Amino acid sequence: MAPLTLTQKLARKARLAGLLYLVIIVTGLGAELGLRGPLIDLGDADATAAAILAAPGQFRLAIAADLVMALCDAGLAILLYLIFRAMAPGLALSAMVFRLIQTVLIAASLMALLTAWLVLTRAGSIADAAALALVFLDLHAHGYDLGLVFFGVNSLIMGLLVWNSGVFARVFGAGIAVAGLVYLIGSGLRFLAPDLSSSFTPAYGLTILAETAFCLRLLVQRSPG
């Protein structure tokens, strides 16, 4: 069997990156929108506590999905660095570092979810457990947005890398860069103007569209010939 050429190796890395990206999208959206979101109302501590205690498996599955997402994100950060380092090593390294920081912050914020669960399941020994659990759930949400600040910077760099790559159409680079701006603005509103945060939520549809499109593009990467 003939050894793989550099182009063939690039194609393999791209397809693996696309697979990891797909898992990240499915588990991330599944955890936030499908599993955890329906249980949590940050404006109603008692209702949130009751919903979580009534569906413990669903709540724990959301944590597991986020953990899988974080593991895949770390792998994707490394793969994207390997794909783009020959084109722009400094930018590729910077993108990897910012994405890994995001991954660490999101993974660390899962401790807030676990703490909320422990508080609720030990409510007999904790005064006002529902309110305290809600604080940790809110802390997780803020930790997630803090991670997205670094991911926003990563996306801007990745947008530039994709735009200049000569391998992927420039529209994918533009889309990833726009997603980065959405992440930065959305996280900025969460911390600096929380009253405006909910009205900006529909803009995250752009991030889903851009990242899914790039994910699919990576999956269909082929070697010439």
Account of the protein in words:
The structure is a single chain. The protein contains eight helices and no strands. It is mainly alpha-helical and 225 residues long. It has one domain. Helix 6 runs antiparallel to helix 7. This is DUF4386 domain-containing protein. Keywords: Membrane, Transmembrane, Transmembrane helix.
Query: What count of domains describes the coordinates?
Result: 1
Average of per-residue pLDDT values? 92
The tally of strands reads 0
Sheet having the most strands? none
Using only CA atoms, what is the Rg? 19 Å
Helix-residue proportion:
over 70%
Distance between the termini: 16 Å
- The helix-strand sequence is HHHHHHHH
Shape: elongated
User: Helical element count?
Assistant: 8
Helix-and-strand structural type = mainly alpha
Low-confidence stretches: none
Beta-strand percent range: under 5%
Protein name: DUF4386 domain-containing protein
Organism: Halovulum dunhuangense
Pfam families: DUF4386 (PF14329)
Keywords: Membrane, Transmembrane, Transmembrane helix
